[in-house]
Amino acid sequence: MTNADVRPAPPSGLGRRAVRGAVLVVGGQVGRIVIQVVSVVVLARLLAPHDYGLVAMVMAVVGVADIFRDFGLSAAAVQARELSRAQRDNLFWINVVLGLGLAGLAVLAAPLVADAYGRDELVDLTRVLALLFVVNGVATQYRADLNRRLHFGALAFADVAASLAGLLAGVIAALNGAGYWSLAAQQLTQVTTMMVLVVVRAGWRPGAPDRSAPMAGLVRFGWHLVGSQVVGYVGNNADTFVIGTRFGAAPLGLYNRGFQLLMTPLGQLRGPTTSVALPVLSRIQDDVPRYQSFLLRGQLALGYGLVVGLGLVAGAAAPITAVFLGEQWVEVVPILRALAIAGGLQTLAFVGYWVYLSRGLTAQLRRYTVLTAGLRIGCILIGSHWGVRGVAVAYATAAALEWPLSIWWLSRMSPLPAGGLVRGAVRIIVVAAAAGVASWGAATAAATWAPAVGLLLAALAGLAAVAVLVRVVPALGDDVRQVLAAVRQARRARA
Fold first, then answer.
1. Which of 22, 47, 491, 492 could form a disulfide with 51 if both were Cys (CB 3.0 to 4.6 A apart)?
2. Whole-number mean pLDDT of the chain?
3. Sign of CA dihedral 172, 176, 179, 180
4. pLDDT for 176-222, tens place per residue?
5. pLDDT value for 61
6. In which region does residue 393 sit, left (phi positive, over 0), alpha (psi from -120 to 50) or beta (all else)?
7. Which of 55, 140, 147, 142 shows the shortest CA–CA distance to 99?
8. Residues 6 or more apart whose Cβ sits within 8 Å of residue 477
């Protein structure tokens, strides 16, 4: 293999490989979600809201620096039609240097983070968590390389194993009275384990930096992407910052538990689908009918696989909170309900992100993200006048406004099948709403029963409502058949 031949998987059988990749990614994320849920259940009974609030304060501030550590270069490596070994090695060193630099900056800025929240204990916590930048900087291009070569199984294994190692470290630390430091131990153990596994599996060592390798296109792609990611991060974490500065660590801990119980597993399911969609869409972007068909099917799979489930969560928020967090976390119920609605609306718009990346529209993505971040921050600031619940409702309101805006904005610059996406989304929303109402009715009727029984009844009622709708409405039945056909294709691909 020559210096110019660090190639992605060939397009032959790309659809079959994409479906197989989707199965591996989803399988891996299911494993991570199980571990995440176990983590929430166990650690919620070992730690206090105050502990979660302190770590959330640090991550909301220093987390934005991790975007600069990546600098959009992982997506640039995956999206590139051709990537030489020299370019890959240069990207590796750029990410490592950025990670080291940002770690040093975080150490120096730790007192400022503590002053922003008025909590002295955040100084040491910020400095310890700065190690995340270094570890992730080393791992970035190894993950990108496995993604580019469609080695989804290796990535899934690394993610699951790392999550399990982090959980064990966090639980052991919490049982020994480490408090909020157990959450730091969980994070550091997880990313370190992941780094080791992807480095070993990728099987290459970076060469010395090569100034002759053409890097301008990759860096330009990353620069445009990082701009949109920073703005998006600020918008996505405005709720955490506002709650932390206005209401303190304990209320932020309550909000954070609702977010971690729902939005983190949702992101673990939804985000990695980009690992499958991006390399495929990047290679079929000139075949418009095929490109549009992939987007429509992708939305259906996300919608019936995730959005309908979020409808069930919204309806059964009370028994879910009691079962997974315990009765002492009852204040999380309205937060969880609002976040479930927000998550469903965000998921419907998620295919738009695939379009931006696969067609190299990162400059346009940055401008759109500025607009939506401003909208979300405005909603959150208004909602904060009604406390933590008001922030959660504001978060959902912003998501409701952003979804149609996303369709309109992207249809102006790409072959987006806007009409098909809107019609498909409406059908998904109808099914999710029916599931939510049915599960809420069952959960309310069983409010005095054991929480586990109430949760089971709510789930059965919601699923029954979905089954009836799919049976009665032909268009919904067609949607489900398309999703099931993709599942059958996945099984054949695995065989």
1. 47
2. 85
3. negative
4. 999 999 999 999 999 999 999 999 998 888 888 888 887 777 777 77
5. 74
6. alpha
7. 140
8. 470, 471
* pLDDT cut 70: percent of the chain above it: 89
Which amino acid appears at position 471 of this protein?
R
The model's confidence at residue 17, banded by pLDDT at 50, 70 and 90, is: low
Per residue, the 3-state secondary structure of the chain, as one string, reads CCCCCCCCCCCCCHHHHHHHHHHHHHHHHHHHHHHHHHHHHHHHCCCCHHHHHHHHHHHHHHHHHHHHHHCCHHHHHHHCCCCCHHHHHHHHHHHHHHHHHHHHHHHHHHHHHHHHHCCCCHHHHHHHHCHHHHHHHHHHHHHHHHHHCCCHHHHHHHHHHHHHHHHHHHHHHHHCCCCCHHHHHHHHHHHHHHHHHHHHHHCCCCCCCCCCCCCHHHHHHHHHHHHHHHHHHHHHHHHHHHHHHHHCHHHHHHHHHHHHHHHHHHHHHHCCHHHHHHHHHHHHCCCHHHHHHHHHHHHHHHHHHHHHHHHHHHHCHHHHHHHHCCHHHHHHHHHHHHHHHHHHHHHHCHHHHHHHHHCCCHHHHHHHHHHHHHHHHHHHHHHHHHHHHHHHHHHHHHHHHHHHHHHHHHHCCCCCCHHHHHHHHHHHHHHHHHHHHHHHHHHHHCCCCCHHHHHHHHHHHHHHHHHHHHHHCHHHHHHHHHHHHHHHHHHHHHC
